[in-house]
User: Fold these one by one.
Assistant:
Number 1:
Amino acid sequence: MKKQFTTLLTITLLATGIFATTSCSSDDSSSSNNDNGFEVVVDNLQGTINSGTVTLDATKTYRLTGKLVVENGATLRIPAGTTLIGTTFTSYIAVAQGGKIFVEGTATNPVVMTAAVKEPGKWGGLVICGKAPINKGLTASAEVSDLTYGGTEVSDNSGSIRYLRIEYAGYNHSAEKEFNGLSLFGVGNGTTIEYVQLHAGSDDGIEFFGGTVNTKYIVSTFNEDDQFDWTEGWNGTNSFWYSKQGLGKANRGIEADNNANNYNATPISFPTIENLTLIGLGKDDPGSENQAMKLRVGTKGRFNNVYIQDFKVGLDIQHDETISYIPTDLKISNVTFNNVGTKAKGKNSADISVNVDQSFTETTNASGAGNGANVPTWAQGWTVGL
C-alpha cells in the first residue's frame, strides 16, 4: 500500500511539473500560434514571415521593434482587439506581392496600430504591395520598404482589412522616402479595405500608388500632410470618406496626381469617390496649401455628394492635361461649400489662370460622408479624435 501511494504521488508530481512547464512556455514573451515555425516574440515583433500563416493573439499587446514583412505565399492574421505598438522610427509592417494580411477588427473591438510615443511620425505604418497595374513602369520599387509592386493583375488579392486604426505613423527616412499611415502600392481590387482610420500621422493618411483597389468607410484625421493622396494611375471605386484636419498643421484634404514625369502616362489615375467630407483648418489659416482638393498632373476623377468646409480654396486644378478632362472625366457633382474662401481656381501648364467652374455643380445640402461636417454614424465608436 505504501509503495502504491509513493508511486501515485510521484506520478501526480510529475504531471503537475509537466503542466507547469507547459504553462510557462506560453507566457507573454513569445507565441507560436502559426504553422511555419515563425517565432512571434510579443515584446520584440519583427522579422520575415516566409510561408504559412501567423496568427496574433488579441489578448497580448505586441511591440514592433523593426520591420515585419509578409512575403509571397505567407499570411498575417490579426484578430479583433489586437494592439500593436511601434517602438522605433523604423518599425513597420509590409506585405509583399503575393503575401496577404487579414485585419479582423469589429466596430466594438478594432485592431489598433499605434506608437509608443503618441506623436506624429514615431513609427512607420502599414505598407501593402500588390500586382495591379501602375504607370511608373510594369513594376517598380516601393519608396518605403523597397519591395516590388505593380504588374498586370487587376483583381490581385492582398487580403482583407476591416476596422483598423493606424495612429502616429509616417516616419520620414528622407525627402524621397516617407511613410504614410497606409501606403497602397499597386494593390488590386480583390483586396478589401473598409472601416479604416488614419490618425495623426506626419505625412499622408492614406496614399494610393497606382493599382485598382476599392475602399469604403475611410477616416483620415489630423495628418500633417494630405489626408488622402493618389498617383501613378490609381483606378478605384470608393464611398464614404471623412477627413478632418487638426493639430494646427496640415496641407490638403486631397492631393491627386497621375504621373509627375509624364502627365499622359497610362493607366491614367481615374478614381470615383462618392459621399466625401473634407474639413480644413479654416479659410483664414495662413498655410500655403490650404486647399480641399489639389487636382493636377493629368489626373481624372469623378466625385459626387461632396461636403467641403473651412478651406481657403475648395478646388485647385492645375495643368493642361488635367483641365482637358473637365467636365466629363473630371467632375465634382453636388458639392456644398461652407466657409470656403475661393470655391475653385485653375492654372494651365503655362501657369496662367483659367476658369474651371465647369468642373463642379453645387447643392446646398450635400451630406458628404453621411452627416455633413459632423461625425457620420458609421464612424462612431471605433475611431478617435472626432
Note: The longest strand covers residues 301-318.
Number 2:
Amino acid sequence: MFGYDWPRFHAAVNDLPAALLLVTALFDVAAWLTKRESLRAAALWTLWAGVIGGWVAVVAGLQAEDVIEHGEAMHDLMETHETLALVTMGIFTVVLGWKLVRRARLGGVEETALRLLSIAGLVGIVWTARIGGKLVFDHAAGIPAATMQTEMRDREAGHQHHPGETEENEHAHADSLADSTHRHAPGTPAHKH
C-alpha cells in the first residue's frame, strides 16, 4: 500500500489525526471564550478530519498488530494501546455525532458536556501516544528481529571518524557556523552554544 507495510503505514498516519483532535479542542475552547462562530466552524471541520484520520490510524494499527514480531510484554502493551485508541476514537466519534445530530442547536449543558468529553479524549490521545512510544522506543515494535540483530552488531563495532573529522573539529565547525548565522539581541549575556 503506497510502498508501506501496515506498521509503517500506521506510523505514517497516526500523528496528523492526533494533532487535528488537539486543535479541535483548542478551537472549541477559543470559540467558547470568544463567542466567534468562525472558531466554532474550525473546531467542527478539524473534528471531522481528526475522526476520519483517527479511524484510519486505528485500522492500520489493528492490521499492524497482526504482522509485527512480538513477545508477551510487547503484546500486553499493544493490547493496552489498542484499547486506549478505540476508547479515545469512540469519545471523539460521539462528540462529532452529537454535534452533527444537534447541529447548531446545542444547549449550554450539552456544549459543556461535549467540551469535557473532548478534554477526556485529549487525555486519551496523550495516554495512547505514550504507550505507542513505549512500543517503538522501548520494545522496537515493528522492527524485525534480523534488522535489530544487524543494528546491534553495527553498534557494537562502534563508529570511527575519518581523519580530520574529530569530535573537537565538528564542534569547532558547528560553533563557527553558529557564530556566522546566529545573532543575539543587544544586551544578551555571553554564553556558549
Note: Residues 6-152 form one domain.
